[in-house]
Amino acid sequence: MQLVPLSDRRITVLFLISWILLASIQVYSILNAGFTWKDALTDAVTTNILLFITCLIVSNSLRYYRPATRTTLYLLSICLIYTSIALVINHHLLVYLLDNRSDYLTFVSQTLPLRSGVAFLIICWMTFVNVLWQSLQERMEEDKRKADTETLAREAELYKLRQQLQPHFLFNSLNSISALIGSRPGEARQMIYQLSDFLRGTLKKEENQWVSLTEELQYLQLYLSIEKVRFGHRLNTEIECVSECSELQLPPLLLQPIVENAIKFGLYDVIGTVTITIKASVIDNILEIEVKNPFDPETTPPRSGTGFGLSSIKRRLYLLFARNDLLQTHTTQNIFTTLIRIPQP
Amino acid sequence: MKRAIIIDDEPLARMIILEYLQDYPQIEVVQECNDGFEGIKAIQQHRPDLLFLDIQMPKINGFEMLELVDQPLSIIFTTAFDSYAIKAFDAHAIDYLLKPFSKERFDKALQKWIEQPATPEKTQSTSALLETASQLPNQQDRLVVKTGNNIRIIPTHEVLYLEADDDYVKIHTHAGVFLKSQTMQHFENTLDNQQFVRIHRSYIVQVQQITRIDPYQKDTYTAILKSGAKIPVSRTGYGKLKTVLGI
């Protein structure tokens, strides 16, 4: 970070040019008042070098010492002190350099209000530019830090949302395996493999590595086959995916929690066989996936966003796309529909 | 011969209990049920000595099903994972099996049951268990009642007011009045106290239903509901109502 504006070379050049301009104006004014070139140059050079040094001191002192209370009054009084010191030194230097020539010294005294005014303005300007510069730099740094923190928090949150493993699902699956081992060991073994593949899939996926719909559907099949072992004939699934969708991309593990929610909602609300339908289509380069499950409108008042499953999906879609309209739900008679839309990269 | 009923919505979960029970020839499983509705019928029909009950099931959960059963039961709960429910079991010392459970753990639970079959104390602890269970978050937004042979699930927002009636509580809704064998105290404890206020010893009312409160006698008032019903408000009830309404 640059602590003072003068540490930037371009600014320094600009600074020097304006200083030369200022000195020229002074020389011109003194010549106009009827003095010699020598007098004019001596005065202009001395005054401006002194002012320049004062400005450097101001700038550097603010670099190492930053007043905690940067009130205008406080800064103004600092400027006033610097100006007075500069003017006193300037006066003594001129007396020395011009051999006590009374005519010129009278001129100096006469123009003192103007000289002090200009000096004060320049020093004030320097001080405030420095202070503003510093707060700007601080603000920029803070913004950057905030942005970094937000990125980190976002990644952590996404990670957490992906890792939401439903303990119910895991323990019930283990219980089914335990039940199968005695009578149908082959099926038990099969289910262990499916469960392992499913769990591995949950662990290895990274947020920024999108997967194709085909891959995600394969993964979903694993999940569905486990659920079918658990619920037996009660669970039916229909998956419909047109060929132009199969290579479309979506964030990993987005579909499975929606289907899980639909199964939970469906199986726990309806007695008898439950059919879950999953339909993928593409509209305007946006992948649309629709998941439908039956429910009982008499016992389950239609609610917007049901339980943790959907709210975490909504949150994820928001974190990924900064949009809140990518997850929609609606009910028709006894069918609950969840629709997600994934804009394609 | 002791009769047992297994209530679980997963066939394999029932299967493993059946398998483990093969070592207990004195226990006969008279019925396996898929859900709470079947469960209630089976309990009334068979009056079992032992019940294996899952918590998470279609339509009504295990706790809600128990609320509708009047007879004392010996229950062994079987559940996958539910930290709230576990709290409820622990507090009231009824045995429970966490899925998946081993044969040894199963035997231990049965041993407990064999040593201490249902006693009046046990029944009391069942109601204490249900009291705790009804405060579970997923159970707070609805009431389950029985009308004849039908079971009705009433979302709490459809309840207008509750009225004490001897050992029962009358639940007034737009669809009619339902009776539930329960105490007013129970409803006062379990219903959302920002939504439902006990305005009188015998009345709990849903605050959104109140349109007007008129003075009645010294220190007492009458609340008039949207439905036109007039309900007495006691002095303490009026105080509570004022706190909830923020006046």
Features:
heterodimer, A: 345 residues, alpha+beta, Heat Shock Protein 90, 2 domains, five-stranded mixed β-sheet, two-stranded antiparallel sheet, 10 helices, 7 strands, B: 247 residues, alpha/beta, Rossmann fold, OB fold (Dihydrolipoamide Acetyltransferase, E2P), five-stranded parallel β-sheet, five-stranded antiparallel β-sheet, 8 helices, 15 strands, elongated
Largest interface: A-B, 27 and 26 residues
Largest sheet of chain B: 5 strands, parallel
What's the architecture of the largest domain in chain A, going by CATH? 2-Layer Sandwich
Please give the order of strands in the largest beta sheet of chain A. 2-4-5-7-6
Cα-atom radius of gyration of chain B? 21 Å
**In CATH, what is the class of the largest domain in chain A?**
Alpha Beta
Main sheet attributes: strand count, strand direction, barrel closure of chain A: 5 strands, mixed
> N-to-C terminal Cα separation of chain B, in Å?
63 Å
Shape of chain A: rod-shaped
Helix content of chain B: 25-40%
Second CATH tier, the architecture of the largest domain in chain B: 3-Layer(aba) Sandwich
Assign a percent range to the helix content of chain A: 55-70%
Number of separate strands of chain B: 15
Poorly predicted segments of chain B? none
Query: Approximately how much beta-strand content do the residues of chain B carry?
Result: 25-35%
Determine and state the CATH class of the largest domain in chain B: Alpha Beta
Strands ordered across the widest β-sheet of chain B: 2-1-3-4-5
Strand proportion of chain A, as a percent range, falls in 5-15%
For this structure, the quaternary state is heterodimer
GO molecular function (chain B): DNA binding; phosphorelay response regulator activity
Keywords (chain B): DNA-binding, Phosphoprotein
Protein name (chain B): LytTR family transcriptional regulator DNA-binding domain-containing protein
Modified residues (4-aspartylphosphate) (chain B): 54
